[in-house]
Amino acid sequence: MAVTLEHPESADTAASSEGLSSRAAAEAYVGGVCFKLGPPTLIGAEIEWLTVQTGPSAQGASPGAAPRPHPAALAAALGPYAPRSIAPDSPELALPGGSRVTAEPGGQIELSSAALPTAADLCERLARDTRLLRDLMATRSIRMISGAADAERPPERLLPLPRYRAMENSFDGIGPFGKLMMCNTAATQVSVDAGADAAEVAARWQAAHVMGPALVAAFACSPVLCGAPAGEWASQRMRTWLRLDNARTRPPAEDWSDPIAAYARWALDVPLLCVRRAESSADWTPPPCATFSDWLTGALDDEVGRRPDFADLDYHLTTLFPPVRASGHLEIRYLDAQPDEVWAVPVHAIDALLSTPRVVAEATELADPVAGRWLEAARHGLADPQMRAVAADLLDLAAAHAPTERAAAELDGAARRCRGGHTPTGTRA
Q: d(Cα 279, Cα 3) in Å, to the nearest integer?
């Protein structure tokens, strides 16, 4: 359930251009590719780690302050599993459990699972692939660090790809949080099916958003971020997203009664982050403030020299970073990366809370008192009494509807932790 949206490469270019000749056609396309309708049966997850280069080059450095590994070292460690972002000729094989490896701009390593019918199978396979990934990294003296924010190293972008250069250029004009997000943070992401029909999509979409602040608080574990402006935050990782680029990261999604149509309208009005050009071109930076709709309607003819096609629209959709992103399924993107021993807990929580329409409705009602309070959740976490109570209630509900005894026990423990005001690392909020 990776975020990449694909359009057949063999599609006729003229047909593609004709298909994007109007905003209405583009909105219809976005609605179709971003919300695949069908009974909710699958779940996926992405887990991410910071990385450090150990060995002689890191002598004298604390474990978290050791140098970042060079992309060539990551590629050598991963061999045939390396992503093409760091090894252009790699076959990009999946690990034995079905997970694929991604390298992020600051050297973070991410595993994206296969989409599976049960969270239990998902977590078992991810655990196996994680063990193999650690072994592979160790062959080049690279250590994976479970942390949602880099507490010791200033941000440094390692990947020279035009996409990341354009992102950095755009975000640097807003403030420091873009580079921090790209290079110094790590997340847990859970992906679920959108729903069988428009009504179920709307209910699941609303639940995923309304529950968001309480779950941000429940799993906040990044109080320190090197390079961030002064301020005490329970989730510095979420702080970077909230301070980054509101047009791209904070749509008014809780108010969308028809998320399929509303997401399509919103997507076309988000400013362009990158304009794909020839691979030999180093500059993918778009004209300032221009939206995809501007490009579609001819406002960028002089600057870009061509109109967008389906591939351009697909690419634009991968540059949208809302708390819940529609990519055929729903990507729940607002959770901190968790400590190694509890990384599966948020996966089980999302799985249980979205397990049936009745549970979806109950979870939405439970979370409603803190709906929309993203900023307070990221800043105060479980120190906010109302946020703490709602987070614990949601985890109790998840435990009651967990499909396995192990998941129920883990969720029950997380609920008790929340009620005691403790973070996933065991410290007091």
A: 21
For residue 93, what are its two tokens? 């094989």
- Residues 397-418: tens digit of each pLDDT: 999 999 999 999 999 999 999 9
Tokens at 237, concatenated? 């990782």
- Three-state SS string across the chain, please? CCCCCCCCCCCCHHHHHHHCCCHHHHHHHHHHHHECCCCCCCEEEEEEEEEEECCHHHCCCCHHHCCCCCHHHHHHHHHHHCCCCCCCCCCCCCCCCCCEEEECCCCCEEEECCCECCHHHHHHHHHHHHHHHHHHHHCCCEEEECCCECCCCCCCCCCCCHHHHHHHHHHHCCCCHHHHHHHHECEEEEEECCCCCHHHHHHHHHHHHHCHHHHHHHCCCECCCCCCCCCCCCEHHHHHHHCCCHHHHCCCHHHCCCHHHHHHHHHHHCECCCCCCCCCCCCCCCCCCCEHHHHHCCCCHHHHCCCCCHHHHHHHHCCCCCCEEECECEEEEEEECCCHHHCCHHHHHHHHHCCCHHHHHHHHHHHHHHCCCHHHHHHHHHHCHHHHHHHHHHHHHHHHCCCCHHHHHHHHHHHHHHHCCECCCCCEC
pTM, two decimal places: 0.93
Distance CA 308, CA 286 (A): 13
CA distances from 287 to 3, 72, 300 (A): 25, 33, 8
Phi-psi group of 227: left, alpha or beta (phi > 0 → left; psi -120 to 50 → alpha; rest → beta): left
pLDDT at 380: 98
Quote the CA–CA distance of 67 and 245 in Å, as a whole number.
29
Residue 158 identity (one-letter amino acid): L
Give the chain's length: 429
Tokens of 184: 């110094």
Closest CA to 238 of 139, 373, 39: 373
CA dist 233 and 154 (Å) reads: 18
Q: Which two tokens stand for residue 395?
A: 């985890």
Q: For residue range 27-49, what is the model confidence (pLDDT) as tens digits?
A: 999 999 999 999 999 999 999 99
Q: 288: Cβ–Cβ under 8 A, 6 or more apart, which residues?
A: none
Q: How many CB atoms lie within 10 A of CB 56?
A: 7
pLDDT bracket for residue 280 (50, 70, 90): low
Amino acid type, 426: G
